[in-house]
Amino acid sequence: MKITVVGTGYVGLVSGTCLAEVGNDVLCLDVDPEKIRILEEGGIPIYEPGLQEMVRRNVAAGRLSFTTDVEKAVHHGTIQFIAVGTPPDEDGSADLQYVLGAARNIGRLMSDYKVVVDKSTVPVGTGAKVKAAIADELAKRAVDIPYSVVSNPEFLKEGAAVEDFMRPDRIVVGAEEEQAILLMRALYAPFQRNHERLIITDVKSAELTKYAANAMLATRISFMNELANLAEVLGADIEMVRQGIGSDPRIGYHFLYPGCGYGGSCFPKDVKALIATAQDDADITLKVLTAVEEANDAQKHVLTHKLKARFGDLKGKHFALWGLSFKPNTDDMREAPSRELIADLFAAGATVTAYDPVAMHETQRIFGDDSRLQYAENPMGALDSADALLIVTEWKEFRSPDFDAIKQTLKNPVIFDGRNLYDPKLVRGLGIEYFAIGR
Ligand SMILES: NC(=O)c1ccc[n+]([C@@H]2O[C@H](COP(=O)([O-])OP(=O)(O)OC[C@H]3O[C@@H](n4cnc5c(N)ncnc54)[C@H](O)[C@@H]3O)[C@@H](O)[C@H]2O)c1
Description:
- The structure is a single chain.
- The protein is 44% helix and 14% strand.
- It has 3 domains: 2-200, Rossmann fold; 211-297, N-(1-d-carboxylethyl)-l-norvaline Dehydrogenase, domain 2; 300-435, 3-Layer(aba) Sandwich (Rossmann fold).
- The longest helix is centred in the middle third of the chain and has 32 residues, at 203-234.
- Helix 9 (203-234) crosses helix 11 (267-282) and helix 9 (203-234) packs across helix 12 (287-299).
- It starts with a strand and ends with a strand.
- Strand 13 (414-417), helix 17 (424-429) and strand 14 (433-435) form a beta-alpha-beta unit.
- The strands form 3 sheets. Strands 3-2-1-4-5-6 form a 6-stranded parallel sheet, with helices on both faces. It has a 6-stranded parallel sheet with strand order 11-10-9-12-13-14. Strands 7-8 form a two-stranded parallel ribbon.
- The protein is α/β, with parallel strands linked by helices.
- Bound molecules: nicotinamide-adenine-dinucleotide.
- Nicotinamide-adenine-dinucleotide is lined by residues 6-12, 29-32, 35, 83-86, 98, 101-102, 120-121, 154, 156, 158, 265-266.
């Protein structure tokens, strides 16, 4: 099939590449010429395990190409995926200008039947807006060309995006026209040879499913974070509680890890957007989600509070920071808890040397050349003359460090672990002061 993917970010690039991998002819469009240049030169603009090799293989096979030429992109695909960003507006609702801009381009330039598939995370009702935007452009041209609008939310996880796309748990397709449903079934057939994973819904239900999924996961995290803070005061160990409840099949183990808050490009923005949709479009206050967000905002400062409780005034203190990205296996710094922590430390007059396997470049772009934030080439290199070690991302390489070396290198043998990586008894037994979350 001929497919166009509009937006070549985390979702668009992974989707386009995986669709090419199964034999489709895919053209990826982006408005950012720098991204397209990197891709055309055989690089990739993001860090995502396994993606670069897959991009190269499919480009070499002639099934995957990149462009900034909107007209070429619209003419190419019968299926037009919209995978552009939907960042939060000032009031928290999703900003649809990029989605609707992409839709208008399609309406302005299409000359034959198109299935326009919304893969961006968008509020309920966006499908209808996309349909109207295309209709409006066609009316301006005084032409009548058939098209369908489909909602196909993406559930991939950064860091495991290729695997998630190639072996999805489920594929949700919100579509109401037979021809579009047939095409979407054929498109996704190669990804579900073992058993049917396609869930066909109406457009609005598909749109809401994506928000419901992220809101549920964010709720589990905030719930555990609150219980962790309680466990700490009561003298219980949240890790034991986690295992005690996770073993109940009605609850399960996933997404019950307490920590220093969730971040990333999806949970914070999607929780905000769902709250805003409910308020603005239905006059309903989502009380649970409002609390989920509040709890998360507070949790991003939990390490700062612990630091102040241990050291008092942080002015002139220097800290080693392990992990910057919002989670392991990605360089994505959007809403990363590390950003809040670094800002807190700066505000308190402290300085930081950070190490992250892939996100230092992106962090430098965000913080600029601020002398208060230095970078180390390896984890141990961050520890020199630091008053304590702080951990905010659970990269595998932090899981089993040389505790003796940590103890010897730090000015004070103190670890603040925002991801509960270590056994408190073991670490404390080595003579290291260990502050974790809820333990
Ligand atoms: N990142 C994730 O893990 C993830 C997972 C599921 C869903 N989503 C959703 O997918 C959407 C995209 O997310 P992302 O993380 O890939 O965003 P991103 O910011 O990485 O990529 C978006 C890309 O779209 C491009 N773009 C914007 N307007 C354009 C236009 N008119 N034409 C062509 N290109 C245009 C931008 O230049 C950018 O490269 C969002 O709605 C997001 O919520 C993201």
